[in-house]
Amino acid sequence: MPQPSAACKRALADATALCPNRNREADGLMGDSAHQQRKSDHNDGNAFDLTHDPESGVDCNLFSKLALLDFRVSYVIWNRQIYNADLAAKGWRPYTGKNGHTHHMHVSVRADLRDIGSPWPWASLES
């Protein structure tokens, strides 16, 4: 049975260490029953969702850009836009999936780098 990757667990842990009182309502690691009905990196433990909570310090407008600095990232979805690391020259593009990801950002990590649990770029921010 798939387990959450070290990279994804570290991402959420780093956000919590930075902002311990942050809202975690839309956080996620493994796919729920809805995710399991379709292709999703959550099903393999290679994705995480981070709740947008700017009042507590987790502003996904910033965190989505910081995520792109990390070598493990495959793609990021935030606020009806998607950025694919393999298509970096195209920049942010419109995302038209059912969930616009306006209350949380989605980050998928590369399967071959999933076990690297090093700090995420936001770990070095000051709260």
From TrEMBL:
It holds the Pfam family VldE. Residues 23-51 are annotated as: Disordered. It comes from the Bacteria. InterPro entries: ARB_07466-like_C. Residues 31-105 form the ARB-07466-like C-terminal domain. Residues 38-51 have a biased composition (Basic and acidic residues). This is ARB-07466-like C-terminal domain-containing protein. It comes from Pseudoduganella ginsengisoli. The lineage of its organism: Bacteria, Pseudomonadati, Pseudomonadota, Betaproteobacteria, Burkholderiales.
